[in-house]
Amino acid sequence: MFKHLQKWFVTHFLGRSAQRARLVSKDGRCNIEFGNVEAQSRLIFFVDIWTTVLDLKWRYKMTIFITAFLGSWFFFGLLWYAVAYIHKDLPEFHPSANHTPCVEHINGLTSAFLFSLETQVTIGYGFRCVTEQCGTAIFLLIFQSILGVIINSFMCGAILAKISRPKQRAKTVTFSKHAVISKRGGKLCLLIRVANLRKSLLIGSHIYGKLLKTTITPEGETIILDQININFVVDAGNENLFFISPLTIYHVIDHTSPFFHMAAETLPQQDFELVVFLDGTVESTSATCQVRTSYVPEEVLWGYRFAPMVSKTKEGKYRVDFHNFSKTVEVETPHCAMCLYNEKDAQARMKRGYDNPNFILSEVSETDDTKM
């Protein structure tokens, strides 16, 4: 009992203070910061204003949305007030009874703002209207109408594009909390479980991984976040996955794998981050999305496998129990990949003979010991 409490205390308190820095969080966000970026380079973001607006957080986007409309209404309200002021249509000028104003019923800045709002959003109450008396007012009406359509199209399009981004679809694809290492098909494999929480499929799904670690080249150069390709497959390959139910993907730890020289005892002392990517096309929108997560050495369990989660009911339906999605079961597993392959080589040598090049056959002449 005391050992379990000690393990829980170390995991939840001491472990949190000693958490490793990771490039990709569990939910796929990248933990990276750009510093000393030149001012000229920052202007490039305004050149590609559409992508910049789409990448903004919702609070900033809604601020721009409200400011764009309120600002344009107030700006054109000032222009309409200026037209009425120049043409002396305001009550303070005491226009004559037969005076024809540029815009009917503009009595001040407030009424000019209301007319600007009605014009840009095409409300058209019919109380305030432009007359044919002023060409300037007609031109301003046309200009505000065109600019209002542009602002409306851009801002509403940006809101719709952000809502329909495939990034939201990626949140319904989840990875297991831990990765496990155990035998599969007679080979030592690193296994990860991934599930699609929607019934709609991801078409053309492709899964792969990158191992990030710090390496030192033979020339003495230190490369931080050096990337090593990690191939993940299922039984049918890693292309065009039939992603209707949770899949267990695995990486075979062979002589070419970066995990080949790791062992159960040395794994927690390793310094790496395994980033897993899943690319696919959303069936309903045909938009491409990417889901990613990462695993640090503490999240890789050696000698475990995932508990089964797919069963068949009496009615003939397949049932997926997500209670066992990240649940692991301890199994007998070789101490290291090298041990497994050495054991296989030893068993193979026992089944076949070998010639001994140091063996020399010498002929011995028989003597007749019966002679007297």
UniProtKB/TrEMBL annotation:
InterPro entries named in the record? Ig_E-set, IRK_C, K_chnl_inward-rec_Kir, K_chnl_inward-rec_Kir1.1, K_chnl_inward-rec_Kir_cyto, Kir_TM
The way this protein sits in the membrane is described as: Multi-pass membrane protein
Compartments reported by the entry? Cell membrane; Membrane
Domain Potassium channel inwardly rectifying transmembrane span(s) in chain numbering = 24-166
Please give the biological process terms from Gene Ontology that the record holds.
potassium ion import across plasma membrane; regulation of monoatomic ion transmembrane transport
Q: Name one GO cellular component term.
A: monoatomic ion channel complex
Residues crossing the lipid bilayer are 64-86, 137-161
One of this protein's Pfam families, by short name?
A: IRK_C
> What keywords tag this UniProt record?
Cell membrane, Ion channel, Ion transport, Membrane, Potassium, Potassium transport, Transmembrane, Transmembrane helix, Transport, Voltage-gated channel
Task: Give GO MF terms, alphabetically.
Answer: ATP-activated inward rectifier potassium channel activity
What catalytic activity is recorded?
A: K(+)(in) = K(+)(out)
UniProt domain Inward rectifier potassium channel C-terminal: residue ranges: 173-345
Q: Does the keyword Transit peptide apply?
A: no
Q: Is-annotated flag, keyword Magnesium?
A: no
Site (described: Role in the control of polyamine-mediated channel gating and in the blocking by intracellular magnesium): N152
Family from the record: Belongs to the inward rectifier-type potassium channel (TC 1.A.2.1) family.
Q: Which PANTHER family match?
A: ATP-SENSITIVE INWARD RECTIFIER POTASSIUM CHANNEL 1 (PTHR11767:SF6), INWARD RECTIFIER POTASSIUM CHANNEL (PTHR11767)
Name listed for the protein in its UniProt record = ATP-sensitive inward rectifier potassium channel 1 isoform X2
The gene name reads KCNJ1
